């Protein structure tokens, strides 16, 4: 009889912990379902409702009875942290991969490792494999842990199954976050110079690298929960969300805030989420997660507690009341739960990753701004090939189409006696604006050297400034000599000045994409609240939490393509469907020249001569051709083609241009901005097998570069690259009153936007003035 009373209580508690038993456990003893503490007073249930657990039995009685039922399972319940806490790359963003490539002569990158409270870490394991061009005797890897060098290792490992173990001094590991920096010095075995540097690479396997741990159980708490989340993310598993009672809508504010906090504490690593069945089984040991989030109902106030599930995973159990949690209370609620990992040692600016815009890169037009204030301190290189990219962000209403100049005043110094043809290239948004030879003044600081470039190369939002140095080897046909020395230094005191602009905008995808957040997204008419909870959390983690004045994205599945609005355009939707249904354009490698039989290059002997064909034209057109050829060295076909070219420039068929461009594209999704009257509205069409969360991850990754969507139509290719089409006839929109102060700049921008239109307007004014003058002359003569 006593067992009959205990059994319902055990079942209720098991549901609260949301056990996910692995399949392999069914072959032997079942895993233990640990009973949470019952010492806290139970909240009273509403009238007519049954309490979650029977308060008749004490915790000791239930624990003793449970032990008697399964006496051999207690040891199995304390699932230990795996033998390896993996590396997390700081530059993984929303699209992490299993490995990261370090290329060049002196690459350096940083990682994080998250350890549980009671973990006993030992060595640091780095799994790496290098290219065949790396000279092992002269190439080395240096590893730094929490600011202290823990070892160096000769490069040249070509076996992907081997790894290097570094001994870590006692006391250097710490619970929670540990910072790892890997720096390489790579030397080509045959050559020296910029071309040779491109052949030098070493891959770091992130899933097989990290802290080697002794077996220790996870302890319920925020730090161990974070270590479990980091472990799962490091091996490519999304965060599991279990919601057997459908409480996600009521818990939405807390879940959204949690997604943001996880991005912060994992140093910008964007997590994805997946819904899992609390009663399902895992068919693979690799699918066993170390941490997960479970929602359970409660009739009292909302609570949160870390517990250990039946499979040993740490579970963040969020008890949600029927009325939910107000958005204003979500932050303080999680502050209490995650207080151990919200210190300055853990947190990171999540907005920088989610929006792709580092606040430091924002600059004011018309004012000199130092590179150091933009996030580029003094930079020195010892490599023969060097490139440094720096983003700077202009205001959203900035637009210059005239020939105004921006100026970079560069402070730099380079070594004496560098080889001939040593040079420094300076690029703006991919365009080379200056080439500086690195010879003649070596060893002397060159201050405020002016480099002017056209401001119309720049755009509103993020722009890219690049420094690229190419220093030949001396000699080039031998390995670089030992003893590296600084070759070039670019000072952070260099300044960049961009001319001011009246508040003008060009409609397109660029600004709405950067202003896109997770709050204003719908799919086939279903808003964010109607999306699956795991997808919603992934969107919040990827794109950022909702903000005022954010742009709104309306997504359509492929089957609902007919609902896509075309706005001011009349583009055939079939052309968009063709983009999403064409097979990926992945060319297969052709046979090597020696493997070709009976083939020669097409242009080996020049073009093939053929007999002219009768074009069916009559004798009059042929006679006209002869006359035009004799007088103007042309014919009727060429005249017609030129007329069509001029006509296309004066009166372009925008829809036909867009359709021709779409006919050459193929991809996973199509992003559009076709209604200029709605500057914050963008539409998305998903391919037949493309998920909304995949496109959101691609948008998040693109926002960290200048290669994101722009114009009116953008296609996400199968290679992850956005390719865009812009309507050249877009009219700039003036966002401020026209005054005498800005009249000249506004007029100049419109004249540069469309010289033909501007000329036609001026000609019209001149014609009207001439007619008025002619009328005055006629009237005057009549009077006389």
UniProtKB/TrEMBL annotation:
Low complexity: compositionally biased ranges: 44-53
Functional pathway: Glycan metabolism; bacterial cellulose biosynthesis
InterPro entries: BscB-like_C, Cell_synthase_bac
Domain Cellulose synthase subunit B-like C-terminal residue range list: 649-781
GO cellular component, one term: plasma membrane
Compartments (UniProt record): Cell inner membrane
Pfam families referenced in this protein's UniProt entry, alphabetically: BcsB, BscB_a-b
Residues annotated as transmembrane: 753-778
Keyword Ribosomal protein: no
Residue segments, region Disordered: 44-65
BP-aspect Gene Ontology terms: cellulose biosynthetic process; UDP-alpha-D-glucose metabolic process
Signal sequence segment: 1-25
Family of the protein in this entry: Belongs to the AcsB/BcsB family.
Protein purpose: Binds the cellulose synthase activator, bis-(3'-5') cyclic diguanylic acid (c-di-GMP).
Binding partners and assembly: Tightly associated with the cellulose synthase catalytic subunit.
Designated name of the protein: Cyclic di-GMP-binding protein
Species this chain originates from: Palleronia abyssalis
């Amino acid at each position: 009889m006593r067992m009959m009373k205990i059994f319902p209580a055990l079942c209720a508690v098991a549901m609260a912990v949301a056990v996910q038993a692995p399949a392999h456990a069914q072959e032997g003893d079942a895993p233990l379902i640990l009973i949470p503490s019952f010492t806290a007073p139970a909240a009273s249930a509403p009238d007519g409702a049954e309490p979650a657990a029977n308060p008749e039995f004490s915790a000791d009685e239930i624990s003793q009875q449970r032990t008697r039922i399964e006496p051999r399972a207690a040891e199995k319940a304390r699932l230990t942290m795996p033998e390896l806490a993996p590396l997390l790359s700081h530059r993984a963003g929303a699209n992490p991969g299993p490995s990261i490539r370090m290329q060049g002569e002196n690459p350096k990158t940083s990682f994080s490792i998250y350890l549980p409270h009671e973990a006993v870490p030992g060595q640091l394991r780095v799994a790496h494999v290098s290219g065949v061009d790396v000279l092992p005797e002269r190439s080395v890897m240096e590893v730094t842990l929490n600011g202290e060098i823990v070892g160096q290792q000769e490069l040249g490992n070509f076996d992907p199954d081997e790894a290097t173990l570094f001994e870590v001094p006692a006391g250097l590991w710490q619970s929670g976050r540990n910072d790892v920096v890997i720096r390489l010095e790579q030397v080509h075995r045959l050559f020296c110079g910029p071309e040779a540097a491109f052949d030098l690479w070493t891959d770091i396997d992130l899933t097989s690298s990290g802290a080697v741990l002794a077996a220790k159980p996870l302890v319920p708490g925020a730090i161990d929960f974070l270590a479990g989340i980091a472990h799962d993310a490091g091996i490519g598993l999304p965060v599991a969300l279990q919601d057997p009672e459908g409480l996600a809508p009521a818990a939405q504010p807390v879940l959204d805030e949690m997604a943001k906090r996880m991005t912060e504490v994992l140093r910008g690593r964007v997590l994805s989420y997946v819904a899992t069945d609390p009663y399902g089984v895992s068919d693979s040991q690799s699918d066993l997660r170390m941490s997960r989030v479970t929602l359970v109902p409660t009739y009292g106030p909302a609570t949160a507690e870390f517990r250990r599930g039946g499979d040993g995973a740490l579970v963040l159990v969020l008890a949600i009341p029927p009325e939910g949690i107000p958005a204003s209370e979500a932050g303080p609620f999680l502050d209490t739960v995650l207080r151990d990992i919200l210190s300055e040692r853990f947190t990171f600016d999540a907005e920088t990753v989610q929006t792709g815009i580092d606040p430091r890169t924002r600059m004011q037009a018309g004012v000199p701004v130092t590179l150091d204030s933009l996030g580029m301190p003094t930079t020195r290189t010892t490599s023969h090939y060097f490139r440094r990219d720096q983003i700077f962000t202009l205001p959203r209403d900035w637009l210059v189409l005239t020939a105004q100049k921006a100026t970079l005043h560069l402070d730099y110094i380079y070594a004496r006696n560098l080889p001939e043809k040593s040079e420094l290239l300076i690029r703006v948004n991919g365009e080379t604006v200056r080439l500086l030879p690195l010879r003649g003044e070596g060893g002397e600081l060159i201050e405020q050297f002016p480099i002017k470039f056209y401001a119309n190369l720049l755009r509103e939002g993020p722009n890219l400034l690049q420094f690229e140095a190419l220093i030949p080897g001396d000699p080039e046909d031998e390995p670089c000599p030992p003893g590296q020395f600084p070759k070039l230094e670019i000072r952070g005191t260099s300044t960049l000045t961009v001319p001011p602009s009246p508040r003008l905008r060009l409609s397109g995808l660029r600004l709405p994409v950067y202003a896109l957040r997770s709050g204003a997204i719908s799919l086939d008419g279903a808003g964010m609240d109607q999306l699956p909870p795991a997808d919603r959390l992934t969107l919040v983690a990827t794109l950022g939490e909702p903000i005022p004045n954010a742009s709104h994205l309306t997504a359509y599945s492929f089957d609902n393509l007919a609902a896509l609005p075309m706005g001011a355009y009349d583009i055939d939707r079939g052309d968009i469907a063709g983009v999403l249904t064409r097979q990926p354009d992945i060319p297969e490698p052709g046979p090597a020249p020696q493997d070709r039989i009976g083939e020669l290059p097409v242009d080996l002997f020049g073009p093939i001569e053929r007999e002219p064909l009768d074009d069916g034209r009559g004798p009059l057109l042929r006679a006209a051709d002869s006359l035009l050829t004799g007088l103007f060295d042309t014919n009727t076909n060429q005249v017609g083609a030129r007329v069509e070219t001029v006509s296309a420039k004066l009166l372009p068929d925008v829809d036909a241009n867009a359709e021709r461009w779409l006919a050459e594209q193929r991809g996973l999704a199509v992003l559009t901005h076709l209604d200029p009257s709605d500057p914050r509205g963008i539409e998305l069409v998903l391919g037949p097998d493309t998920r909304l969360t995949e496109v959101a991850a691609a948008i998040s990754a693109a926002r960290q570069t200048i290669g994101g969507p722009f114009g009116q139509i953008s296609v996400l290719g199968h290679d992850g690259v956005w390719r865009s089409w812009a309507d050249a006839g877009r009219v700039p929109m003036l966002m401020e009153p026209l005054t005498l102060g800005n009249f000249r700049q506004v007029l100049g921008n419109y004249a540069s936007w469309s010289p033909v239109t501007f000329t036609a307007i001026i000609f019209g004014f001149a014609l009207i003035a001439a007619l008025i003058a002619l009328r005055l002359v006629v009237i005057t003569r009549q009077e006389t």
